[in-house]
Amino acid sequence: MGAPVYKRVLLKLSGESLADPASGVGLSYETIGDIAEEIKAVHDDGIEVAIVVGGGNIFRGAPAVNHGIERATGDYMGMVGTVINALALQNALEQRDIYTRVMSAIAMQEVAEPYIRRKAVRHLEKGRIVIFAAGTGNPFFTTDTAASLRALEIGADVIMKATKVDGVYDADPAENPDATLFSTLSYMDVISRDLKVMDATSITLCRDNKLPILVFNITQPENIRRAISGETIGTIVR
Description:
By secondary structure, the chain is α/β, with parallel strands linked by helices.
């Protein structure tokens, strides 16, 4: 592999990426271990890695609204789910001798540090992996928005959005075998074509601050390292 083209990256992991592959819910410790190995490889290369985790494998606020849960309450429940995922990932990384800090946007002093931007940057400079949990700490905002916000706050070179497909397609590849994979897209392409890369708020944040987004398949071994080394994989939005 070539020399890294990024120095500091923000990896966005959905809750489903940590889940049991068959059911898409709960935690798969084997899958979490595999992801931790991938992260360790790029960390050992000297890359500064921050991570934002989702919580959809544990709880989703939007569907809960249909069952009578108030939207804000549901969103807070989802935020707590992201903390569970962050702690599971932290444990897997520290089992591999990587110093890791979980920083939560909701105060949970016993299990996580409060999110403080300058402290997060200092952790990264010291070679620690930082896992951002609890989204933005506010209801009505997704963890995609949290990823864009945190990436900008820490000065990340790129958002790496991990998915279970090879990138962004013009249609759902699971339903349409003739779907076309995009290699590059503009921010406006994503918004105007409603391509569901990330929500509109996060795309707008990235567009306004010229922060690229790389959408790639995390289930393929070494894809994180390949992407950081500048290989052409997935879809780049810029």
